[in-house]
Amino acid sequence: AKASADKSLVWYDEHLLEKMMRERKLQEHLQSALSNEEFELYFQPRVELSNLQIVGAEALVRWELPGSGTLYPDSFIPIFEANGSIAELDFYMLKKVCRYLHERMIQGVELFPISVNFSRVTLYREAFYETFHAIVDEYAIPHDCIEIEVTESAFNDIADIVLQMLNQLDEEGFPIAMDDFGSGYSNMNLLGSLPLQIIKLDKVFLQEADSNERVKGIIICAVELAHTMGVQIVCEGAETQQHVDFLREIGCDFVQGYYFTKPIPHRAFDEKYPHFEQR
Ligand code: C2E
Ligand code: CA
Ligand code: CA
Ligand code: CA
């Protein structure tokens, strides 16, 4: 028994060491990955429920790691968040989005709003406002085309200076969205003080609504809460026709989900949706 206990201890240590080394490797990789353009810009459309037209897209990162295939954000973002380097990736993605929109401007093609995810770590970076502006201004992007998406939990204990900055960005016309609404410890009173234009209801609600009638009630109330506050609401994670029908019935504004499409590379998005509707 003792021998096997020792063995499992050794196995555990090796496992941990391996994990640490893999994480360190990924971290060391970030710089070269950024300069080698290994991060790819994927889009998932945002669909307006009243007419089922695409009105925007969310930018999502994929890491095309040579030799390892495509890595999904959940496997590397927590590592970059832990050591603060996520800001570099977030701003890199913002730049890709701005370059994409700039290209459309040059071609005279219709623009559409794109939501960009920013981690709490990035938002709290001292020079967030300046860096954000430098990128958006360099490409002369209309402010209403860049939506700032921040996870609900990132707003907890929000610092005054960050709140002021968000108010400033809101005044400048950048839409601000609360992501993953309902997934964490929501602070209801925060909703009143944040300059939000959009709430994104976390995908767990639609998933659970299939088997739980009460969760449907929560979704209905979330839509009503948003509308009473004068903000619009996106429901995430629609995978079936029933989901879409339900959301239309209850007057939800927008929807995203696999039912329409999984996130796809931005070039594939252009091919798939060549006749992008005017807003
Ligand atoms: P998120 O911002 O909540 O993005 C939505 C996630 O739900 C995406 O996962 C998307 O692929 C997935 N999804 C969309 N429709 C459906 C559906 O119908 N069913 C299911 N089961 N899932 C659906 P993804 O792309 O793997 O991204 C995971 C998370 O990684 C994102 O969650 C976001 O928090 C983070 N992330 C992605 N890109 C970035 C980035 O550039 N910067 C930062 N800071 N975070 C990012
Ligand atoms: Ca998001
Ligand atoms: Ca979300
Ligand atoms: Ca998320």
From TrEMBL:
GO MF annotations in UniProt: cyclic-guanylate-specific phosphodiesterase activity
Domain EAL: 23-277
Domain of life (superkingdom): Bacteria
Claim: Membrane is one of the keywords in the record: yes
Keywords, comma-separated and alphabetical: Membrane, Transmembrane, Transmembrane helix
The keyword Membrane appears for this protein: yes
Protein name in the entry: Diguanylate cyclase (GGDEF)-like protein
Phylogenetic classification of the source organism: Bacteria, Bacillati, Bacillota, Erysipelotrichia, Erysipelotrichales
Residue span relative to the full protein: 322 to 600 of 903
